[in-house]
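Why run this: before we spend reagent on co-expression, it is cheaper to look at a predicted model of the complex and decide which construct boundaries make sense. The entries below are exactly what would go into the expression plan.
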Amino acid sequence: EAGVVQSPRYKIIEKKQPVAFWCNPISGHNTLYWYLQNLGQGPELLIRYENEEAVDDSQLPKDRFSAERLKGVDSTLKIQPAELGDSAVYLCASSLGGSNTGELFFGEGSRLTVL
Amino acid sequence: EDQVTQSPEALRLQEGESSSLNCSYTVSGLRGLFWYRQDPGKGPEFLFTLYSAGEEKEKERLKATLTKKESFLHITAPKPEDSATYLCAVQDRSGSARQLTFGSGTQLTVLP
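The model came back. Tokens follow.
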């Protein structure tokens, strides 16, 4: 069974440029998460989807970040414009939901470097 | 606000030298505590879920335990392949039902 797939794995951009990350969750997983992980830190939640609905986006900086999950499967996270402080790893995760709500399956992440 | 503190930040062991990693937490009501393993350049990989004080889970050389204030990840006779960052996360019973609060992790290095 394929795991969570993310692309691109690495992205280098100059500040003020836009960037987008794509995530394909595990088949059948209704819940999708985007996390941000800074070096030496644990992941921090940006947004959580239940099917196509964003049910928790309280920590998403909405002035520059946006996300969508069309048809409740794939998801895209966009940053426009990027700032130097956005350099981090962006992790996508999915879960079946229900009682196992803490058992998340993570992708390998997209490492963003903003110059 | 939920808080998770992991110690030590880094730990170097010789192969076969057993030790423990600590995860101290503060939540208004614990729904679950989770341990993950993260290899360099990879996403975290789920290891264990603990729900109540006194509960223990084992997997190969790893055993996780839980009290009302902290959790321990015991590593018995570790091997070099156990080298990774171990992350602890808590889920609060109140508020956003599925949000995990992660600690900063313990970076474990096992030397051959």
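The mean pLDDT of chain B is 94. The first strand of chain B starts at residue 3 and ends at 7. Bring this page to Monday's planning discussion.
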